[in-house]
Design goal:
With 560 residues, this protein is α/β, with parallel strands linked by helices. It has 22 helices and ten strands. A five-stranded parallel beta sheet has the order 7-8-6-9-10. A three-stranded antiparallel beta sheet has the order 3-5-4. It is an enzyme of class 2 (transferase).
C-alpha cells in the first residue's frame, strides 16, 4: 500500500498520481507554477473517484508553511486561555452574588428597605413569602461581622428615631364600613344570664343539611376534621326549638390569650383549660382575627378565600353546647342560675400580627395602618379580657429562631440574621415612623428573624388606646416558670373564676411545663455573647418604656 509523500493520498498500485504538482519532478516550483503561484499550501487534486484521507505520515512543507502551523498552535492556546478566563469570571460572579445574598462576603453587601407600596392592589397576587423582592440595595449595611461597635452605630440610629406616639382610634362607623358582614352576624347585645358573651341565632337548615359543609377550617386542615365529625353528630341535639323555628347558641370568647409567641402561652393554655369553669375553642390557635379572616392559611402560601366569621364561631360550638346545658337546666329556669362557664381563645398572633392590613384597608398617611385587630374586637366585645405573657425579648428571639428555622441553625447563623434584620429595621426607621415599621408586612417578611415581635410596648400602647388597663393582665414567663402557682392564681382572680379543690389546684399547678425547647435545639447552646449584647442594646429603650407603662421594673429584664 503506497502513499504520496507530499499530499498523503492513498495510491492505487498503478497510480502515478500525476495530479499532484509535487510529483511532477524535482524542477517543480510552487512560486513558478501557474496553479500553485502565490499559495503557501499544499494543493490537493483528486480524480473523479472519491478519495479518503486515512493517515498522516509526514507533511513536508516549505518555510512559510511551518510558520502557518506555528500560528495555528498559538491560536489554539489563545482560545483555551480566553475560554478559561470566561469560566473563571462566571465562577467569581456566582460567588459574589451568592455571598452577597447570604452575607458571606467580607465586603459590604447592602440590603435596603424599599418604599412602601402606595397601592395595595399591586401586591395582591404576590405570596407573602416573596416580599423580600421589594428591598433594594442601600448605601450601607453590615454583612457577616461580629464587630460590636459597628453594629452599635446602627442601634444608636434606631434609638434616636424612636417616638412613642399615641394612635388615633377609629370610630365605629368607619369599622362598620370595613367589615359589614361581620357586623351583620355578631349582635351588639348578649344574653344577660351568661357570663360569657353568647346569643341565639336562627338556623335555617334542615336535617339533611351539613352545618359544617363549608367551614374553611374543616376543608383546609385534615387534623381538624375529626373535631367537626363529632360536631356534626351532636349538632341536632343542641338546637333550641321555639315557635316552629330552630335556634343555635352562638358564642364569642370571654377572654383572649393574645401573646406573645415563645413566651409560654401554650403552657398557660394547657393549665388554664383544666379549670372546670374554662373552655377553649376547638382549635388552640385559630388565628382568625389576624390571618384567616384575610384568607391567610400559611404565611408562605399567600392568600386564599377569606374565612367568614361564621367559620370562627363554629369553633366555639362545643363550649356553647355546655353553656346551653346550664342555661336550660331546671335550676336556671326556676332560680335564674347564672352561667359561669367562660370561653377562651389563645392565638399568640393576636397582639402583634397586623401584617395583612395593607392589602385590605386603604392606606393611611405615612404608612401606618388605619385599623388594627383590637379595634374590631373592642367594637363587638368592649368588656373582653386580655392576657399577655412576655419574656426577655432577647431570649424570646433566640427561642423563636431555634423553633422556626429549618436548617443550618447555629449561634453564628443567628448572629448574622440579627445583624441583617437590624440593618433592615434601621433603613425603615430613617424614613418612616416606629408604628409604620412595626406593622409593615414587607419589612417583617424580609427580616430573617422577627425582631419586631419583641417590641412589646409598641403593641401594648396600641391595645391601651381601646381597652382599659384593668382589662389587660400582663405576666412574665420568668415569674411563671419560677412560681406557677402564683401566676395561675393571678389568672384565676383576673378572670373571676370559681374556687378550686386542693386536688384540682394541684393538677393545674404541678403538671409539667408544655412546649419546652427541643433536645436538638438545646444542643446548639446559647447565642454568642456579642449577639446578646447587641440585642440588649436594641431592646433597652423599649423595655424601659414598658416598665414605665406597667409601673414594674421587672420588665427591664436586667437580671436575665
Amino acid at each position: 500500500m503506497r502513499y504520496c509523500i507530499n499530499c498523503c493520498i492513498h495510491l492505487l498500485p498503478n497510480d502515478l498520481h500525476r495530479q499532484c504538482f509535487r510529483c511532477r519532478g524535482p524542477d517543480h516550483n510552487n512560486q513558478k507554477c501557474p496553479v500553485c503561484k502565490g499559495e503557501n499550501r499544499i494543493p490537493l487534486y483528486a480524480d473523479s473517484k472519491q478519495m479518503k484521507l486515512l493517515a498522516v505520515l509526514e507533511v513536508r512543507t516549505d518555510h512559510g508553511e511551518s510558520w502557518n502551523g506555528f500560528f495555528c498552535l498559538r491560536k489554539g492556546k489563545l482560545c483555551s486561555l480566553v475560554f478559561g478566563l470566561i469560566i473563571m469570571t462566571l465562577v467569581m460572579a456566582s460567588y459574589v452574588l451568592t455571598g452577597a445574598k447570604h452575607g458571606l462576603l467580607l465586603i459590604q453587601s447592602p440590603f435596603h428597605y424599599g418604599a412602601f407600596t402606595s397601592n395595595p392592589s399591586l401586591m395582591d397576587n404576590e405570596s407573602l413569602s416573596d416580599m423580600k423582592d421589594h428591598y433594594q440595595p442601600s448605601k450601607m449595611n453590615i454583612s457577616y461581622v461580629k464587630d460590636y461597635p459597628s453594629i452599635k452605630l446602627i442601634i444608636d440610629t434606631i434609638t434616636s428615631k424612636i417616638e412613642f406616639i399615641m394612635r388615633q382610634r377609629p370610630d365605629l362607623e368607619e369599622l362598620r364600613k370595613q367589615e359589614p358582614h361581620m357586623f351583620s352576624v355578631i349582635p351588639n347585645k348578649f344574653l344577660p344570664n351568661s357570663k360569657n358573651p353568647c346569643w341565639y341565632e336562627e338556623y335555617r337548615g334542615n336535617t339533611t343539611t351539613d352545618p359544617y359543609a363549608t367551614n374553611s377550617y374543616a376543608l383546609y386542615s385534615k387534623r381538624f376534621r375529626t373535631i367537626f365529625d363529632y360536631l356534626r353528630k351532636v349538632f341536632w341535639n343542641h338546637l333550641y326549638h321555639y315557635k316552629d323555628k330552630h335556634y343555635r347558641l352562638r358564642c364569642l370568647p370571654h377572654f383572649y390569650i393574645i401573646g406573645q409567641p415563645k413566651c409560654g402561652t401554650t403552657d398557660l393554655y394547657d393549665r388554664l383549660r383544666l379549670h372546670p369553669d374554662v373552655r377553649f375553642s376547638a382549635i388552640k390557635e385559630p388565628h382568625w382575627w389576624t390571618r384567616k379572616r384575610f384568607g391567610i392559611i400559611r404565611l408562605r402560601d399567600g392568600f386564599h378565600d377569606r374565612y367568614p366569621v361564621e367559620d370562627y364561631l363554629d369553633l366555639f360550638d362545643l363550649a356553647a353546647h355546655q353553656i346551653q346545658g346550664v342555661l336550660q337546666s331546671e335550676a336556671a329556669k326556676e332560680h335564674g342560675k347564672m352561667n359561669n362557664i367562660v370561653i377562651g381563645e389563645a392565638s399568640a398572633s393576636t397582639m402583634w400580627d397586623n401584617n395583612a392590613w395593607i392589602f385590605f384597608y386603604d392606606n393611611s398617611t405615612e404608612g401606618e395602618p388605619p385599623f388594627l385587630i383590637q379595634d374590631f374586637i373592642h367594637a363587638f366585645q368592649p368588656n373582653a379580657k386580655l392576657i399577655i405573657m412576655l419574656r426577655d425579648p432577647v431570649e424570646r428571639l433566640y427561642s423563636d429562631y431555634l423553633y422556626f428555622a429549618s436548617a443550618n441553625k447555629s449561634a453564628e447563623d443567628f448572629h448574622e440574621k440579627v445583624a441583617e434584620s437590624l440593618q433592615l429595621f434601621e433603613n425603615c426607621m430613617l424614613d418612616y415612623s416606629l408604628r409604620a415599621c412595626v406593622y409593615n408586612n414587607t419589612l417583617n417578611n424580609a427580616m430573617p428573624v422577627r425582631l419586631q415581635v419583641g417590641l412589646y410596648v409598641v403593641y401594648l400602647l396600641d391595645w391601651l388606646t381601646v381597652f382599659d388597663k384593668d382589662q389587660i393582665l400582663v405576666l412574665r414567663l420568668e415569674d411563671h416558670a419560677s412560681n406557677v402557682k402564683y401566676t395561675m392564681h393571678m389568672v384565676f382572680q383576673f378572670l373571676d373564676l370559681g374556687p378550686l379543690s386542693e386536688k384540682q389546684e394541684a393538677l393545674i399547678t404541678k403538671s409539667p411545663a408544655s412546649n419546652t425547647r427541643r433536645p436538638e435545639d438545646r444542643s446548639l447552646g446559647p447565642m454568642l455573647p456579642t449577639t446578646k449584647a447587641i440585642l440588649r442594646d436594641f431592646y433597652r429603650p423599649f423595655n424601659t418604656k414598658l416598665a414605665q407603662v406597667l409601673f414594674d421594673d421587672a420588665f427591664l429584664w436586667k437580671r436575665t
